[in-house]
Design a protein that fits this description.
- The longest helix has 4 residues.
- By secondary structure, the chain is mainly beta.
- About 0% of the residues lie in helices and about 35% in strands.
- It is built from two helices and 27 strands.
- It has a single domain, classed as TolB, C-terminal domain (Neuraminidase), CATH 2.120.10.
- It holds the Pfam family GSDH.
- This is Glucose/arabinose dehydrogenase.
Length: about 450
C-alpha cells in the first residue's frame, strides 16, 4: 500500500524478532473432532489442532492425526464444577461441528506489546491498541505507525491499560474514534473509562478528546476492567464493565447504583442513551447487570447485543443481554472459585436471574467476539467467532433461534487470542496478546 507522504515514519515488523516465523502460511485441515487435553500442562485443552512442521521454515501444517495419542474430544473433559446440571439441552458441550475447512494464516504485523483491541478503517488499515497506552495504525502490508498522540493517561497495571477501540461507519467523514481504558483515579484506585477523539488526517494525533463514561465507584484493583465497545444498529454505544474481581467489589455487580459488572448503553457523545430501561433506584446508563468480566461483545445477525464473559474456574458464559435483566453473578454461576470452593451457595439458577445461552467448563478464557458475515467462508455465515486466551484457539459456535447448535475450535497454539474481527473482504483477523503480539489474517487455504 502506498503511504501518504505526510505520515510519520512507520516501522515494519522484523521477522526475526518474533518467536514464530513471520508471514508464514499455515494450511489447516479443520475437522471438528478437536483436542481437549494438553499433556504438557496436564490441563484439558478444548479443542483443536497441534502443529507439525512441514516444508520450509515459512510453512507449517497443523496435523490432528499426529496428536491423537495425547488428545481427546473437549466435550469429554472433566468439569471443575461437578454435579451441576445445565438448564436446557446444548447449554454446554454442544455437538462438535463436523466440517472440513482448510485454513491459511498470515502474520500481518508483530512486535506489538500486549495488543488488546482493533478496528478496521475504511481504507483497510487497522487501529490497534496496546495495553501500555499506545494506539497505533497498522497498514494492510504490516507497516506499524508510531503511537498516536493525545490520548489520556492509562493505568496499565495488571489487566489494565488501553483496551478496546471502535469507529462508526461514518469515520471517513468524521474521523472520530472511541476507546476504553483503565483510568487512574488517585489514591491507587482506577476504573474503566471510555473516551472519544478525532484522529488527524495524517494519523499522528487525536484532538477534541473527551471522556464520555467513567465507571463508579473506582477501586484499588488491577483486575476485571471489561471492556468491549459495540455500536448498536440505532447508534447507541454498548460498553461492558468488569466487577473488579475481589470479594467486596464483586458484590456490586448486583448493585444497580454502581457501574461494576454491568453492560451500559450510552449516547456516543456522552450520557445514557435514550430508551434505556428504567431500573428502580438504578443508574440510567445500565442496560443489564450481574456480570463478572465481559471481554467480548458484538451485534449479532439478529441485531441484538451478544456478549461473552469470563467465569471463575468454569462458567465462562455466552449471553444475549436484554434491557433491564439480571444475569446473576455472583449469586448464580456454572463455575467454582479458583480454590475449588463453591461461589456463594453454589447455585446455578434463581428466579429473576437470566440463564446463559451457553457456558464452558473447563473455561476457554474468552476475549473478542465477531459474527461471521463475509464471503470467504460461506458455510460459516452467522457463526459466532470467539477468541480463547487459555485455549489459544479460535472458537466457532453455530446458532439457531438464539440457541447454540454446535461448537468447533481451530488453530490450537496460534497464541492467546485477545480479539477477533471480520475484515471487509471476509478474512478473519485475530489479535494475539503477548509481549510480541501479532495481527493474524485467516483465510481459506487454496
Amino acid at each position: 500500500m502506498r503511504q501518504n507522504a505526510n505520515l510519520p515514519t512507520w516501522r515494519r515488523p522484523d521477522p526475526a524478532s518474533s518467536p514464530r516465523v513471520k508471514n508464514k502460511r499455515i494450511s489447516v485441515m479443520v475437522r471438528a473432532v478437536v483436542i481437549a487435553a494438553v499433556v504438557m500442562v496436564g490441563l484439558p485443552c478444548h479443542g483443536a489442532f497441534a502443529a507439525a512442521q512441514a516444508g520450509d521454515a515459512g510453512e507449517q501444517v497443523w496435523d490432528l492425526a499426529s496428536q491423537r495419542g495425547i488428545a481427546r474430544d473437549f466435550n469429554a473433559a472433566r468439569p471443575n464444577a461437578r454435579g451441576q446440571t445445565p438448564a436446557f439441552p446444548n447449554q454446554t458441550r454442544a455437538p462438535v461441528i463436523k466440517d472440513d475447512v482448510r485454513l491459511q494464516t498470515r502474520v500481518i504485523a508483530s512486535s506489538l506489546e500486549h495488543p488488546w483491541g482493533m478496528a478496521e478503517l475504511p481504507d483497510g488499515r487497522w487501529l490497534v491498541t496496546e495495553r501500555p497506552g499506545r494506539l497505533r495504525i497498522v497498514s494492510a502490508d504490516g507497516a506499524v505507525s508510531p503511537p498516536v498522540k493525545g490520548l489520556p493517561a492509562v493505568d496499565a497495571r495488571g489487566q489494565g491499560g488501553l483496551l478496546d477501540v471502535a469507529v462508526r461507519d461514518d469515520f471517513a467523514g468524521t474521523r472520530r474514534v472511541w476507546w476504553s481504558f483503565a483510568e487512574p483515579r488517585g489514591g491507587g484506585t482506577n476504573a474503566t473509562a471510555v473516551a472519544t477523539g478525532v484522529l488527524s488526517p495524517d494519523g499522528a494525533a487525536m484532538s477534541d478528546v473527551r471522556v464520555i463514561f467513567r465507571q463508579e465507584p473506582p477501586w484499588k484493583s488491577t483486575l476485571h476492567f471489561g471492556s468491549r465497545l459495540a455500536f448498536a444498529p440505532d447508534g447507541a454505544l454498548f460498553v461492558t464493565t468488569g466487577e473488579r474481581s475481589h470479594n467486596e467489589p464483586r458484590k456490586l455487580a448486583q448493585d444497580v447504583t454502581a457501574l461494576l459488572g454491568k453492560v451500559v448503553r450510552l449516547d456516543p457523545e456522552g450520557g445514557p442513551a435514550r430508551g434505556n430501561p428504567h431500573i428502580p433506584g438504578g443508574r440510567p446508563e445500565i442496560w443489564s447487570w450481574g456480570h463478572r468480566n465481559l471481554q467480548s461483545a458484538a451485534i449479532g445477525p439478529d441485531g441484538a447485543l451478544w456478549t461473552v464473559e469470563h467465569g471463575p474456574r468454569g462458567g465462562d458464559e455466552l449471553n444475549r443481554p436484554q434491557a433491564g435483566r439480571n444475569h446473576g453473578w455472583p449469586i448464580i454461576t456454572y463455575g467454582v472459585e479458583y480454590s475449588g470452593q463453591k461461589v456463594g451457595e453454589g447455585r446455578t439458577s434463581q428466579e429473576g436471574m437470566e440463564q446463559p445461552v451457553y457456558y464452558w467448563d473447563p473455561v476457554i478464557a474468552p476475549s473478542g467476539l465477531a459474527f461471521y458475515d463475509g464471503k470467504l467462508f460461506p458455510t460459516w455465515r452467522g457463526s459466532a467467532l470467539i477468541g480463547a486466551l487459555r485455549d489459544e484457539t479460535l472458537v466457532r459456535l453455530t446458532l439457531r433461534d438464539g440457541k447454540v447448535t454446535g461448537e468447533a475450535r481451530y488453530l490450537k497454539g496460534i497464541g492467546r487470542v485477545r480479539d477477533v474481527r471480520v475484515a471487509r473482504d471476509g478474512a478473519i483477523m485475530l489479535l494475539t496478546d503477548a509481549n510480541d503480539g501479532e495481527i493474524i489474517r485467516v483465510t481459506p487455504a487454496p
